[in-house]
């Protein structure tokens, strides 16, 4: 039997998540919507590019923007097949489910409304609790749900209201390897999407010159463990965090300045990076006074047939990449915690000249720009 599932993701990554579903042989993608990928499958499997995966419970037309119609959402809690849905949850989860002792609901909606997300959550949550005869844990107070609460998701997108049941005990974006974090740590599903776009092959040398807590390299190593991974960061705290998170994975993390990398010319096949352009983390080292060093070094170490997948905060940075002799071959605008960065895949421009690159101890050698 094919089970209808919904993968939730960052806005802008819907096509990437759909490609992972199809590439993993999970089943057929039936629909792409705002932050959602609907698909049918016969087997459960974690999706690394998705924030979370849910069983589709019920749908109805959106109730609109006013509080008066909010009570109509309660009908979502009484689908004819809800007992079968709970059985699927018990047997389809990729991790063992604890004893079912209660429910919680998380809601989101598009557009202005005269009600809050908590109003919508409580209408559906209380109706579900009555239907299932279990306690309802409201999120109004900001306290996390207790163990044994099965998570439900409610979305209202202006066209329809959708109710879903989380497939696993915890959201997929909460990675077990994340033992340590630092400011500016990248969202793991986005890191997994960047690694997927990079098309890393066995034997490739993969570099993150500003690796932070190591999320990009770790996601890439989990996807393609037969490549070689190198990470540098000017912060000793970041290096320590990345090493702790990487554990036994084949990821080498060292202290180093992205403006002066200890790597030969043309020695890197893939670059994955969320550069420190001052949005969450300020540039340090050589980049603090001369950000152009980052682009010069990137072009120097990247092989002529290499690829760089980067997260850039705005159009000016994309224009800077072009000025530094990179050609964009993929550009996607994302919505990420209030910001709208660009996810870009770059290749060295054909016929780019060579310039003098900055090298340790003042020695200048030939490098590509």
TrEMBL record:
Keyword Cytoplasm: no
Domain Ribosomal RNA large subunit methyltransferase K/L-like methyltransferase: 175-325
Keyword list, A-Z: Methyltransferase, Transferase
Gene3D superfamilies: Vaccinia Virus protein VP39
InterPro entries: DNA_methylase_N6_adenine_CS, RlmKL-like_Mtase, SAM-dependent_MTases_sf
UniProt keyword annotation of Cell cycle present: no
Protein name listed in UniProt: Methyltransferase domain-containing protein
Organism (species): Streptomyces sp. R11
